[in-house]
Design brief:
The chain has one domain: DhaL domain (Serine Threonine Protein Phosphatase 5, Tetratricopeptide repeat), CATH 1.25.40.340. It is mostly helical and 244 residues long. Helix content is 61%, strand content 5%. The structure holds adenosine-5'-triphosphate and magnesium ion. Adenosine-5'-triphosphate binds next to helix 3, helix 5 and helix 9.
Length: 244
């Protein structure tokens, strides 16, 4: 039987992602100050704080993977202003509609979830690769997962490939001109700056490696994901910003 990850691991991944976003608020805002309106960090932090709170609430039970993703989507749509909230919300909402086996997903189901999410995001935002948006990180990552799946790789290999592809896509946004959102008003002046949304999207795949690569579930009791997470995000010119 193909190796599966559990609903609990997916939940831990999303908590870990929330921790990373909260830790990187300043950095995401700094990137959005250069080419936007300086609110991506605060938008994402506000949304992911709510997601984290909801996922850690012992009163909340998720019957299946779809319910978990739908809950994240609805929280983001209602709590996050600006472009990114509804776009990430759509990503998770559409991912929730893909076929899964209830409380577990195999690599093929998980990859399809991400593909459904990406397609939904693009239908909503009409952004394509090289428009300098979150799509520049998410699409190559999903394609890397699909390629790994086609060559029968393990979860660990597939996720590592997705993370690397997302990172390269994120870094590539430095070189290109924005065609979507507020950054597009800058025209060529948007060149030379890393896209904030591509950066928050990269973190989704970075945390997936930490939370989902191993069959041993990452422990979460409300504190441990933050402690277990790497504490820096790659920034412009490949520099590392330490957040410790
Ligand atoms: N049409 C789109 N499709 C996909 N991603 C987009 C689109 N428009 C903007 N983005 C992403 O959203 C990020 C900005 O999110 P933010 O939380 O700052 O919302 P915002 O200030 O309302 O956005 P914007 O100013 O880009 O319209 C961008 O860095 C980009 O990655
Ligand atoms: Mg903004």
């Amino acid at each position: 039987m193909a190796q599966e990850i559990t609903l609990g691991q997916l939940r831990n991944w999303l908590i870990l992602y929330a921790d990373r976003i909260i830790a990187e608020e300043e950095q995401l805002t700094r990137l959005d100050t250069a080419i936007g309106d300086a609110d991506h960090g605060v938008n994402m932090r506000r949304g992911m704080e709510k997601v984290r709170e909801r996922l850690l609430d012992p009163e909340n039970h998720y019957a299946d993977v779809g319910t978990l993703f739908r809950s994240v989507a609805m929280t983001l749509i209602s709590a996050v202003g600006g472009a990114a909230g509804p776009l990430y919300g759509t990503f998770f909402l559409r991912a929730a509609t893909s076929p899964n086996s209830g409380s577990r997903v195999d690599l093929s189901q998980f990859t399809r979830m991400l593909r459904f999410g990406l397609d939904g995001l693009q239908q909503r935002g009409k952004a394509y690769v090289d428009d300098k948006t979150m799509v520049d990180a998410i699409q190559p990552a999903v394609e890397a997962m699909e390629a790994a799946l086609a060559s029968q790789q393990s979860w660990a290999v597939a996720l590592a490939a997705a993370k690397q592809a997302a990172r390269l896509g994120m870094e590539h946004t430095i070189e290109i001109r924005a065609n979507k959102g507020r950054a597009s008003y800058l025209g060529d002046r948007s060149i030379g700056h890393q896209d904030p949304g591509a950066t928050s999207a990269y973190l989704l795949f970075e945390t997936a490696v930490a939370a989902l690569s191993t069959s041993a579930p990452l422990k979460v009791n409300g504190q441990e994901p933050a402690a277990a997470s790497p504490r820096s995000v790659p920034t412009q010119a490949g520099k590392q910003k330490n957040t410790d």
